[in-house]
Amino acid sequence: MNRHMLILLAVTWALFAASVTGYLVRTEESDPPARVFLENTGGRVVFAHAGHVADYGLECVECHHDDTGAEQPVPCGVCHPKAFDDSFRGGHFAAFSDRSHCLRCHASDPDVETPAERPDPEWIPVRTDAFHEQCLGCHESMGGPVGEDACDQCHAGM
Ligand code: HEC
Ligand code: HEC
Ligand code: HEC
Ligand code: HEC
Ligand code: HEC
């Protein structure tokens, strides 16, 4: 093997290693993830996050409710739990770093409002409904897997 071949090989390996590292490791916690793994009883969903932004030209706000380009958004499941049961009611305050998030659900300062003013979970969708509504709603208008036969395009093993 000549010298040029060796250099070429070294460069190829360096690029390969860098791309694998980039695929697996998030440089900063606040970086948008390349892909998101969503565990659930229907079978794991591998969501191509970066692909949806870069390849399909979507804006952050189309999924994140607000422009989260600069800030780390709160994971969807913090506001859309599996159920608005006692464990959500008792512990959810600890999940929000920013008081402005409280006002997304509470009409006023949640520490001074009366129980009667507390949000009605009926208008906040639970996790599965929120995801299905958002993913499938957009696919209906822009393309992407949709319909009764499409389950296994998102869920591994369905
Ligand atoms: C097609 C919908 C969609 C678009 C467009 C989108 N995101 Fe996301 N994003 C998601 C979903 C779904 C998650 C996973 C949330 C979860 O795990 O609960 C996520 C997760 C994230 C997370 C990690 C939050 C966490 O769970 O810790 C960050 C950061 C993020 N997105 C930033 C962005 C930014 C910045 C943009 C615009 C450049 C963007 N996203 C565009 C759907 C989207
Ligand atoms: C800070 C809390 C909060 C976070 C984080 C959040 N949501 Fe929501 N979401 C709400 C509330 C409150 C509603 C009730 C209706 C409204 O105010 O828009 C809602 C409504 C929805 C709806 C139904 C109404 C609509 O806009 O179509 C969908 C779908 C939805 N959320 C998906 C998501 C997804 C997916 C994520 C993560 C990318 C997410 N939400 C993150 C609070 C949140
Ligand atoms: C995703 C929507 C949502 C967000 C965001 C949210 N809450 Fe709540 N909160 C609720 C719901 C739903 C209840 C239960 C209402 C009920 O049934 O009494 C509740 C109840 C409460 C209660 C009463 C608890 C009890 O034991 O009766 C307090 C206090 C409270 N929230 C404070 C906060 C604070 C502080 C924040 C921000 C750090 C916050 N909430 C963010 C939805 C939310
Ligand atoms: C705002 C619009 C939008 C939202 C929201 C959205 N998608 Fe998509 N999705 C698209 C578009 C556009 C395509 C590409 C369709 C094509 O080219 O045929 C796509 C394609 C896909 C594909 C097939 C190709 C690929 O990239 O893997 C999967 C799987 C997928 N989306 C999963 C999801 C999941 C899971 C969610 C919810 C977490 C979601 N999408 C939310 C617009 C969206
Ligand atoms: C566009 C992608 C997509 C398609 C198509 C899709 N789902 Fe889902 N599904 C999701 C996402 C995303 C979640 C939320 C994962 C999570 O909770 O983290 C989910 C959650 C679920 C759950 C979990 C419920 C739980 O509480 O754990 C079930 C069951 C499910 N889907 C069934 C189906 C069935 C049946 C179909 C076909 C009729 C289908 N899904 C089609 C993306 C999809």
**Average pLDDT figure:** 83
Task: Quickly give the structural class.
Answer: mainly alpha
Helix content: 40-55%
Q: Which percent range describes the beta-strand content?
A: under 5%
Tally of helical runs: 8
Bound molecules: heme C
The parts where pLDDT drops under 50 for at least 5 residues are: 20-29
Q: Secondary-structure element order, as H and E?
A: HEEHHHHHHH
| CATH second-level architecture | Alpha-Beta Complex
* Spatial arrangement of strands, main beta sheet: 1-2
Reported for the largest beta sheet, the result is: 2 strands, antiparallel
Gyration radius (Cα, Å) is 21 Å
Level-1 CATH class name: Alpha Beta
Polypeptide structure, described:
The chain is mostly helical and 158 residues long. The chain has one domain (34-145): Cytochrome C3, CATH 3.90.10. It has helices at residues 3-24, 49-54, 61-64, 76-79, 86-91, 102-105, 127-142, 151-154, and strands at residues 36-38, 45-47. A two-stranded antiparallel ribbon has the order 1-2. A hairpin with a 6-residue loop joins strand 1 and strand 2. It starts with a helix and ends with a helix. Bound molecules: heme C (5 copies). Keywords: Electron transport, Heme, Iron, Metal-binding, Transport. This is Class III cytochrome C family protein. It holds the Pfam family Cytochrom_CIII. GO terms for molecular function: electron transfer activity; heme binding; metal ion binding. InterPro entries: Cyt_c_III_dom, Multihaem_cyt_sf.
